[in-house]
Amino acid sequence: MKALVFHGPGQSAWDSVPDPGIQEATDVIVRVDAVTICGTDLHILKGDVPEVRPGTVLGHEAVGEVVEVGSDVRTVRPGDRVLVSCITACGRCRFCRKASFGQCLGGGGWILGHRINGTQAEYVRVPHADLSVHALPGSVGSADAVLLADIFPTAYEVGVLNGRVQPGDTVVVVGAGPIGLAAIVTAGLFTPERIIAVDLAQTRLDAAKRLGADVIVDAGSGPEQLVADLTDGLGADVVIEAVGVPESFEMCTRMVRPGGHVANVGVHGKPATLHLEDLWIKNVTITTGLVDTSSTPMLLRMLAAGRLPTSSMATHTFPLDSMEEAYDVFSHAAGTGALKVVLGGQSHTALARTAPSPKE
């Protein structure tokens, strides 16, 4: 089969690799219909995630059809159309029993495209399938569903829930990329007084406005003063960091009010300064986190009911074998205006007619 293979920092290629096969009784093999690229994949290519070894197939988000199941799989069967979660969960360890699937000790957590081969391929092996893939209703399109593999649960759980967004809050989202936009959408579920989006790219700020931000501001045009002016000098109740660079994190800590919450979602490849000389007296809560995806079933129900505006976030579509072109477009988002790129996404029926068996 073909797959996007990481060959070291700054190096990747759409290569021929062996087809995946069942290794454990809890595995499934999924034929990929739709896949997307995450900002975390770009961090891997920059060398920010050294655990990823050269030769690894990248990607941790996909929709596809189950073509083979291990003998212990109970929740899906061949022919089922499924969402492949970015997080794999054994369901038995102390963390999984608390629905903290991201911290799974039983061979799960974030492993796809990280510690084992991932989803940016024609086929993918998914371990611990009973908790790690989700059957999709026929009414949900693949290009929409794939956005619930990572960005929506991540924004909701690590940003909005960790940030303790409440009705009447002032919420600032720093970074209006896909995660930031999903944070704006899901923060709106809690009826805050206002949502302020901060970014450097006007196209992303425009998207933030369409998706529910009440105020948009260029990161270079004094967002800290604007937040102070809008809150009578107090600062924001919740600030969500969705970039992953030291400057944005430090900006977030300057914009939060006493007793407020800073929810870091961004993947950081460099140290950031924590100014405890200013923060120690402010009763500020700072949270970090890897998504657990415990909210995915609920978000899927909302998507099926038409309550999540996912379609407007996929700005570019490509066939699956245009992976290298898609990476180029996504990695130059400032120039291309890319928010989320989706590869594949043709109908389940068409895929079943044209895709080879993983054993061929």
UniProtKB/TrEMBL annotation:
CDD domains: FDH_like_ADH2. InterPro entries: ADH-like_C (IPR013149), ADH-like_N (IPR013154), ADH_Zn_CS (IPR002328), ER (IPR020843), GroES-like_sf (IPR011032), NAD(P)-bd_dom_sf (IPR036291). Its cofactor is Zn(2+). Keywords: Metal-binding, Oxidoreductase, Zinc. SMART domains: PKS_ER (SM00829). It comes from the Bacteria. Signal peptide: none annotated. Gene3D superfamilies: Medium-chain alcohol dehydrogenases, catalytic domain, NAD(P)-binding Rossmann-like Domain. Residues 8-343 form the Enoyl reductase (ER) domain. Belongs to the zinc-containing alcohol dehydrogenase family. This is Zinc-dependent alcohol dehydrogenase family protein.
